[in-house]
Specification:
The complex is a heterodimer. By secondary structure, chain A is an alpha+beta fold. The mean pLDDT of chain A is about 75. Chain A has a two-stranded antiparallel ribbon. In chain A, strand 1 and strand 2 form a beta hairpin. By secondary structure, chain B is an alpha/beta fold. Chain B has 15 helices and 13 strands. The N terminus and C terminus of chain B are likely disordered. Chain B has 4 domains: about 140 residues, OB fold (Dihydrolipoamide Acetyltransferase, E2P) (Beta Barrel), CATH 2.40.50.140; about 160 residues, 3-Layer(aba) Sandwich (Rossmann fold); about 100 residues; about 55 residues, no CATH class. Classes of the chains: A alpha+beta, B alpha/beta. The interface between A and B is large, with 38 and 39 residues. Strand 1 of chain A pairs parallel with strand 7 of chain B, so a sheet runs across the interface.
Chain lengths: ~80, ~500
Amino acid sequence: MSNVSFEQALKKLEDSVRRLEDGSLDLEEALQTFEEGIQWSRQCHLRLAEAEKKVEVLLKADREELIQVAFNLDEDA
Amino acid sequence: MKDIPFTVELEDEEERPQEPPRRDSGGPGVPGDPGGPDVLTVGQLTRRIRGLLEEGLAHVAVEGELSNVKQAASGHVYFNLKDDSAQVRCVMFRAAAAGLRFEMEDGLHVMLRGRVSVYEQRGEYQIVVLAMEPRGAGALQLAFEQLKARLEAEGLFAPERKRPLPFLPRGIGIVTSPTGAAIRDMLHVLERRFPGMPVLLAPASVQGTPAPGEIAAALRTLGEIAPRQHLDVIICGRGGGSVEDLWAFNSEEVARAIAASPVPVISAVGHETDFTIADFVADLRAPTPSAAAELAVPVRGDLLTLVQDFRLRLSQRLDDHLSLRRERLAATRARLESPQDRLEQLALRLDDLGERLRSSGRGMITRWRERSGSASARLKLLRPDRFNRLHAETLKELQRRLQPALTRHVASLRERLGAQAELLDSLSPLKVLGRGYAVARMSDGTLLRSAGQTAPGDLLNLRLEDGQLETEVLKVLPAEPAALEAGREKQPPEGKSGGKTKGKPGGKKRK
């Protein structure tokens, strides 16, 4: 579940909602579907929250070795 | 050719006029010795021609059409420049040819600059081309069209090569100048739409000679580290500028680097109206760098709302499921209590019915009472003492009239009865029997109409005018066709079987 993309998680969440809305599930299935839906929505939130503010610039150090440093827009402005 | 050694010696002294009469050396019309003009070797002549040409035509600019363009393995390009009336051989050495932004091809109309030179060994003169420019369309435009046509033919622009952008990239790689307006615009848009989206900038010059190489290298670098850095899309571009400024994005090197990128590339070069080769190769063309950033990420707030909305629906639908089942449970439990309930219902119903019975009984009695009351009232009105006196006269009169009317009526009836009886008598089958016929019936009472209805041993009842006979069939003799007509007329029905049954009057006794 953890290497699923946001889009896939969102699709799963949507599926859960639709199945539950369909109303033909028995109680066990409905509870299970709900639980899964909650899991997927948690995944979605996770994916959205995961991104930390991080803008970096690649610098070529000696010997073609790449390093990444924070890129500050204001300095260059 | 035997005297070459001599002439060579002589040639070596070329610059020193040896012989006074030949002041202007090589002058064809100079009267010389009795032997005519100086005899030159081919080499001497050629060298003289070369000197004349290379001095006199050191800088030429010629316009014409390219033909027979050939690039040698060395990298030098050989071709002819021609017009309607003449042609001249040309060579463009590798270094000069490499600086061209377009490719030389037959039929191309060009203006070139160079110097005239002579290739002694062949005795040919040619132009050593130093610079060349297409006429008509600009050189850049031509280069653009040529590269575009070539890459398109290779299938680099094919729609099926275009990869879809990820719905939400985990990170974004950007190839552009770290100091330009483009990177600022893009970062602002990214921050606005999706705060915190990881961005990795691979800096590159975006104009000037090193630009194509740097851009291509940056693309390759990002492509290499994309899996580790979770870069799901790359934006490659720069802000607006002149056509020359944007030229790096029309280079083959950049085009091929974009095509080779392992992650989808959004091109974002200049303004809406600028189209570069990079735009055609990229998986998606954005009109500007800002637009590229918009295309690269969705709006985070929208996604959060969407997820919240789904989650709310999940909860609501689960509630629906639960309350539906609660209701069903309540309804079912209610039905479990029903035996008690049912008894009460039955008791109620019983009471109700009893009440209705009693009340309807009372009603009946009342109605009977009313009816009998009204009957006795009417009875009183009909008291005979009053009635008799009132109608005695009328009664007498009626009695008087009744007798003759009755007599007349009876006579009329009797008359009609007699007529009917006569009619009946004339139609009676008994009359027919009186004429000697008999009616034969089967034992079940069926009227016998055909000999075929019987079989030997059947019991028949024969009715004559004055009595009946129980008989038994001894034999069935179908009438012969010829005799049929006659037989029908002459023989009465009883002749067939009756004659033979006479001896068995007690047929009935045999059952």
